[in-house]
Amino acid sequence: MSSYFGTIKRGAETVLGGLKITIEHFARATKRRDRLSAQDDNYFKQPLGLVTIQYPSEAIPTPPFSRYRLHNDSADCIACDQCARACPVQCITIKSFKATPDDLEELGTTSDGSKKKLWLEQFDIDMAKCMYCGYCTYPCPTECLTMTPVHDFSEFDRSNFIYHFGVLTKAKAAEKRAKLAKYEEEEKAKKAAAPKAAGASAARTPLAARAAAAKAESGTESAAPAAETPAADAPKPAPKLSPMMAAKLAAKKAEAGETAAPAAPEAKAAESATSPAPDAPKPAPKLSPMMQKKLAEAEAKRKASEGGESNAQ
Ligand code: SF4
Ligand code: SF4
User: Fold this and answer.
1) What torsion, rounded to 10 degrees, do the Cα atoms 295, 301, 307, 313 define?
2) Ligand 2 atom closest to Cα of 72?
3) Which of 11, 129, 237, 299 has the smallest set of CB atoms within 10 Å of its CB?
4) Mean pLDDT, the chain, as a whole number?
5) Ligand 2 neighbourhood includes 72 CB (under 6 angstroms)
6) pLDDT tens-digit readout, 106-145
7) Residue 268 pLDDT > 50, yes or no?
8) Residue 96: CB partners within 8 Å, gap ≥ 6?
9) How far is the CA of 120 from the centre of ligand 1 (A)?
10) Ligand 1 pocket check: which of 83, 90, 131, 148 to mutate, most ligand atoms within 8 Å of Cβ?
C-alpha cells in the first residue's frame, strides 16, 4: 500500500518539476533575443529569451560573406566565359559574339575602364541546379558576378529559377549578328583584294618607272636591265673597309715590306725562279748554340768510341 502512494507522489513531483521549467520559460517569454547576425560577437551570448521569429515578416540577418542567390551585373560583364567554365554543374549558359568596330562605342566599357568587345547575348544561371559553391565568382575578372544575401526565392514554377542577365533582346541580337556577318564578309573581300592591289602599286614604283623610260628610249626590252646590271665577268669592286680595318691592313703590308706584290704576275714568276725545285734536299734547320754544342759533343764521343774499337781490332 505504501509503495502504491509512493509511486503517485513521485509522479506528481515529476509533473510539477516539468511544469516549473515550462512556467519559468513562459514567464521569460516576454523577453526576446536580439536578432543578431552569426558574425556578431554577442550571437552566442543570448541563452535566454524567445528564439522563434515571425518569419517571413522578420528574418535573421545573413552573414556578410554568405553564399546565396547569384547576381550578374551585366554592365560590367565582358562575356569572357570564365565563370561558366569554372561551374562544376554547368548551370551558367553564356552566348556572345564579336561587336563590329563601329559598335564598340555603343558597347562601352566596364566600371574599371576595360573595353568591352563582345555582345552578351545570353547569360543564364539556373539557380535550381546551383549548389552555391561560389566557384564561378572567383575567376570573374571584373568582379561582376557575386553571391547576394538573398536566400528566400522559392518558386512554384521551376523555370523561374533560371535568371537571365543577357543584354540583347532577340531582335537586337539578330540585327547585330547580321551586321557582324556583313562586316566579316567585307573584311574577307578586302583581304582577298589586297595582294592584287600590292602588285599594282609595285608597278607604280620609281624603279619600274625608270625601267619603263629606259625601255622607251632604247626601243628594246633588254636595253634597260643590261645598262643597269654590271657585266658578269667584270671584276668586283673592292669591299669598303672601316677605317680601323684599313689601318690594320696597311700595317700588315708595311710589315711584309710591301713584297706582297706577289699579286703581280712578274713577281710571282721571279719568286718561282728563286724557289728550290720540289725534289731538292731541304736545308738543315737552324739550331740553337746549346743544341749545336751538344751535337758536337755527341759527335766527338761517337768518333772516340769508333777509334777505340778499331785500335782493339
Ligand atoms: S555557385 Fe557553384 S554551382 Fe552555382 S553557378 Fe556558381 S559555380 Fe555553379
Ligand atoms: S567571369 Fe565575370 S566577366 Fe566573365 S563572363 Fe562570367 S560574369 Fe562575365
Assistant:
1) -120
2) 7
3) 237
4) 79
5) yes
6) 999 999 888 899 999 999 999 999 999 999 999 999 999 9
7) no
8) 79, 81, 118, 119, 120, 121, 122
9) 19
10) 131
Burial of 287 (0-12, 13-18, 19+ CB in 10 A): exposed
For ligand 2, whether the C-beta of 46 sits within 6 Å is no
Distance CA 230, CA 227 (A): 8
pLDDT tens track for 169-221? 999 999 999 999 999 999 999 999 887 766 666 556 566 556 666 666 655 44
The letter for the amino acid at 293 is K
Residues with CB under 6 A from ligand 1: 70, 86-87, 89, 91-92, 125, 130-136
